[in-house]
Design a protein that fits this description.
Layout (H helix, E strand, L loop, with lengths): L2 E8 L10 H15 L4 E4 L16 H11 L2 E9 L7 E8 L5 E6 L28 E3 L2 E5 L8 H9 L4 E6 L9 H15 L2 E6 L4 H8 L15 E5 L2 E6 L3 E8 H9 L26 H16 L1
Parallel strand pairs: 1-2, 2-3, 7-8, 8-9
Antiparallel strand pairs: 1-12, 3-4, 4-5, 6-7, 9-10, 10-11
Helix pairs in contact: 1-2
Length: about 300
């Protein structure tokens, strides 16, 4: 299989005593994805939850069962207990295949906690950053994940690419559009595709305007059925494949053989070029020079944190 159908499930997230409705919505979206012949369905950061340490509920078994029943691989968001810090949690995306078997999981690595995950009634637990960058083997290829604002850190995606990732998902949390980040965010997601010769995709949890006001203390323009706007987008190294701010499942076809071709091909000056980006540039890398990057990062980190 060299062509896969990727679906992005951009959907309303509920909080508080309605939070478990997220799981109901997620299971129905897996069903819909199966009806649309989606190979991999991705959910936004931490969806379907849980979003707090006070309201825990089981999502792994129902999501695996739905994936198996409808024949759809799923990358869903949750918070998992940190194995080294009792009472703390990792922001996690779990990947199960179309047989309902867990293939792997990525626990968010940046930034260090507590970041934005404390002291809100909607999203509240002791977040701890993890330290690993797994690449997940799928039947069709290799999948990487980088969560939310990690898109601003090119090192994360480059590590995944060098480990063989062919598709990288950027599930995001909330209020990206309302904060004014969408243009820069989508530009970065596309840039990660170009510089690493892979497919990238991003999406965000949608919320009712009343919930958004609880987070940010001000009114927002709403879209769709009274919801905040989405940032759903799928990109290739050669262009944007799909984009929508609306709720629902955004679907795009990814031709993995095309990105494999771009990785193994040497650029030639052919007019018109048979590609829309410079191919083969990962082979230009000179790792022996990059110790300087680590040295500069160590020297700059304290002053950068101080602002």
């Amino acid at each position: 299989m060299s062509v896969i159908r990727l679906g992005l499930a951009q959907v309303e997230a509920s909080f508080g005593d309605q939070e478990q409705q997220n799981l109901v919505r997620a299971l129905d979206l897996v069903r819909q994805a199966g009806e649309r012949d989606v190979d991999l369905l991705a959910f936004a950061e931490n969806f379907p939850g849980p979003f707090t340490d006070a309201n825990r509920y089981e999502v792994a078994e129902p999501m695996a069962r739905a994936a198996r029943e409808h024949g759809v691989a799923v990358a869903y968001g949750t918070s998992l207990p940190d194995p080294d810090r009792p009472g703390s949690f990792n922001i996690t995306t779990v990947v199960v295949d179309d047989r309902g078997e867990e293939r792997g999981a990525y626990r968010r690595t940046h930034p260090v906690g507590p970041y934005i995950y404390r002291d809100s009634p909607e999203w509240n637990f002791d977040y701890v950053a993890a330290d690993d960058f797994p690449v997940i083997d799928m039947p069709w290829g290799k999948l990487g994940i980088s969560i939310c604002s990690e898109v601003h850190l090119p090192e994360v995606t480059r590590i995944l690419a060098l480990r063989g990732a062919e598709v990288v998902l950027y599930p995001s949390g909330l209020l990206i559009d309302e904060l004014g980040y969408t243009e820069a965010w989508q530009t970065l997601v596309h840039a990660r595709a170009i510089e690493n010769h892979l497919y990238t995709a991003t999406l965000v949890n949608l919320m009712s305007r009343s919930v958004a006001e609880q987070f940010a203390g001000e009114s927002f323009e709403s879209s769709g059925p009274g919801l905040t706007r989405g940032i759903g987008m799928v990109a290739s190294p050669e262009g944007i494949l799909a984009r929508s701010p609306e709720p629902g499942i955004l679907v795009a076809e990814l031709d993995l053989e095309r990105t494999r071709y771009l990785r193994r091909t040497t650029e030639e000056l052919i007019v018109p070029a048979p590609y829309r980006t410079i191919p083969g540039h990962l082979d230009w890398r000179r790792p022996e020079l990059y110790g300087t990057l680590l040295e500069a990062a160590r020297e700059a980190a304290p002053s950068a944190r101080q602002g």
